[in-house]
Design goal:
Chain lengths: 203, 446
């Protein structure tokens, strides 16, 4: 990676991208280096499918490069890239309407001890069961760390609506993960009991 | 707004100060709310940590860059994924190079010492050493001497007592040179002569040695003496001197002396030569300090059937390590283990070959490289250790390689293989003892 380009702001990189071939290549590589992981994570969590995520991700960066000449102002490049990804994902979703009822989804409880990895997978699976609007709000807020205003700009609805969608998405995920979380609560209770004095345990 | 929503808003950064205080007040008394808080907090933390675990596949990266007519980038964590080998190398190259470099350096030091000492430590042809055993000095050999030149942990008073007891049974063969007697903390050797032949044994040629007494030892007295000694020498007669190591009675350290290299060595009770050592090892996750206790039962070169000490505190090592980065730790280590020694001793024109198996204490500096995330199996942590230090009689180096099985964030079991080299000097000649074998231990993270 070119050290000089790594110091550039996003806007400077876009300007470099518009210039000559050599600079464009280095600038694109720098942008890719900065945001590819984030965008791919968004694609994967929103679609729940590696194959779809790859398609969306690839198309996103190609579209970005092709549209760069039209960009005059860039305040938030990652949000812009997410917006491109979102549009592609929505188009893809229109072609693939698959609905799964939450009640059909059984979360298996595994007490193997690898809580974090296991819960990451469970949350990812739970996301698949959410409505796209809730899912993307949750992913943008919880995974991407975008502000409600940024999400509002990308999605095109009010920040309060996004705030509500994130909350509701979280509640739904909690319902889906309920068996797992109950197991965790048992551990929580056990730990708490251990800390209690004996007289409390006799109650 | 429900309490659950309150918690969500708090974690989401959208709660005012007053609302936050009231939430904390509720949390302090409501157990159900505490559980709710715990669940939501877990969701938040996991969602955030999930990001770092995802990276775009390299085939997609290649496609994008090739479609745009760009050369494919080769650096950057997020673009260096791809097939298994490429991904593995990308993720672990630094660790692998460090591990290989550590292993090569310690191996180089180990075998370098070995090669160096082999050129200098050839004990002269054993046939050259048929003289009597003289012991006026055994420098640098882990122990100091009593008057007879036999290594001893006993004080002079103890020896005197023993002599008295021996003499009651009409036995001697043990002499104290009070002028030169030294208390030894490591080893004890008592000679006992069972002269079953007509000719007297020639042993322990101290200045006040009494051959007649030495010849009068009986089997019963051997038994008696074995209760208080570690090593006993039996002499079957001139030209065919045998020495035997008998079991000791709880004293530390063993020494074995051979006056005649043509002797056959009898090891009556201790058929297994157990030796051990250990280095540090250990591991920790997100802990600055770790403490390790290790045990290992390994082989030594030279290898004699000399019983090891009965001490409970042997074949153990203790290590305190401080984490200097995510994978590396450095610290102090010490341990106690037996090292067989074989060396030639020239004294008063009477050369001897001496063999012994003293219990030594070693100490020094340890370095450990441990991977926490190899193959994404977090509870299985390969490690490599390097140690440089001393064992009182000379420099001591050690290297371990193995695996930690993490039981919890504070405790792990380790299994591995260890090799070490002890270098020592006797009368200007360099000798060495090599040890190797499996090791195992426990690790505590502090």
């Amino acid at each position: 990676m070119n050290i000089q380009f790594s110091k550039y702001s996003d806007l400077e990189l876009i300007l470099a991208l518009k210039s000559g071939k050599k600079d464009a290549e280095l600038a694109f590589a720098e942008i890719y280096s900065r945001y590819s992981q984030r965008i791919y994570a968004y694609c994967l969590r929103v679609t729940g499918s590696h194959e779809e995520a790859k398609d969306i991700f690839q198309e996103c960066f190609l579209k970005f490069y092709n549209s760069v000449n039209g960009i005059e102002k860039m305040d938030n490049l990652p949000a812009y890239l997410i917006k491109i990804s979102r549009n592609i994902a929505l188009n893809l979703q229109r072609d693939q309407q698959v609905n799964i009822r939450i009640e059909d989804y059984n979360v298996s409880v595994n007490d193997s001890g690898y809580e974090q990895r296991e819960m990451m997978d469970l949350i990812a699976k739970a996301l698949d069961l959410l409505n796209f609007d809730f899912r993307e709000a949750f992913v943008m807020r919880m995974y991407q760390g975008l502000s409600y205003n940024e999400i509002s700009e990308i999605v095109g609805v009010g920040a309060d609506i996004i705030r509500n969608r994130v909350w509701r998405a979280k509640e739904k995920i909690k319902v889906i993960l309920d068996p797992y979380l109950k197991e965790m609560d048992k551990v929580f209770d056990m730990n708490e009991d251990l800390d209690k004095p004996k007289i409390m345990l006799k109650k | 707004m429900t309490n659950s929503r309150f918690i969500h808003e708090y974690l989401d950064g959208g709660l005012g100060e007053t609302e936050r205080d009231s939430l904390f007040s509720l949390l302090s008394s409501d157990r159900g709310l505490q559980r709710e808080f715990d669940s939501q907090m877990r969701l938040h933390l996991i969602a955030q940590s999930d990001m770092s675990a995802i990276s775009p596949p390299i085939d997609v990266t290649n496609t994008i860059f090739s479609q745009l007519g760009f050369s494919i980038p080769t650096t950057g964590s997020n673009v260096a994924s791809g097939n298994f080998i490429v991904r593995f190398w990308s993720a672990n190259s630094r660790a692998l190079i460090s591990a290989i470099a550590t292993f090569l350096l310690t191996s180089l030091a180990f075998f370098g010492f070995r090669a160096y000492t082999e050129t200098q430590s050839n004990i002269a042809s054993k046939s050259d050493y048929t003289g009597q055993f003289h012991s006026s000095s055994l420098p640098l050999v882990s122990s100091v001497l009593n008057n007879d030149g036999y290594l001893s942990t006993k004080s002079n008073n103890e020896y005197e007592k023993q002599n008295t007891l021996s003499e009651k049974h009409g036995s001697s063969g043990i002499r104290q040179n009070k002028q030169r007697s030294v208390t030894n903390n490591f080893t004890t050797v008592n000679n006992n002569e069972d002269n079953s032949s007509n000719q007297p044994a020639v042993l322990g040629a101290g200045t006040d040695y009494d051959e007649n007494n030495a010849n009068s030892t009986t089997e019963d007295e051997n038994t008696f003496l074995n209760n208080v000694t570690i090593a006993t020498f039996d002499y079957d007669g001139p030209g065919s001197i045998n020495k035997q190591m008998l079991e000791n009675s709880g004293l530390t350290g063993n020494n074995y002396f051979s006056n005649n290299v043509n002797n056959s060595w009898k090891n009556q009770k201790n058929t297994a030569f157990l030796n051990s050592s250990s280095l540090l090892d250990n591991w920790s996750i997100n802990k600055d300090y770790s403490f390790t206790l290790n045990y290992l039962n390994n082989n030594a070169t030279p290898n004699f059937n000399i019983p090891t000490s009965n001490s409970k505190f042997q074949n153990l090592s203790a290590t305190l390590l401080y984490k200097i980065d995510n994978n590396s730790s450095i610290g102090l280590s010490c341990g106690r283990e037996c090292f067989t020694q074989e060396f030639a001793l020239n004294n008063n024109s009477s050369p001897s070959i001496i063999r012994q198996n003293p219990l030594l204490t070693w100490y020094g500096i340890s370095y450990r490289y441990l991977r926490h995330d190899l193959y994404e199996v977090t509870w299985l942590n390969p490690f490599i250790n390097a140690f440089v230090g001393g064992a009182g009689v000379g420099p001591f180096i050690k290297s371990d390689i193995g695996i930690n099985f993490r039981i919890s964030n504070y405790f792990a079991l380790s299994f591995g293989y260890s090799g070490s080299a002890l270098i020592y000097n006797v009368q200007g000649k360099i000798y060495k003892t090599f040890k190797y074998g499996p090791m195992y231990g426990i690790n505590f993270s502090l």
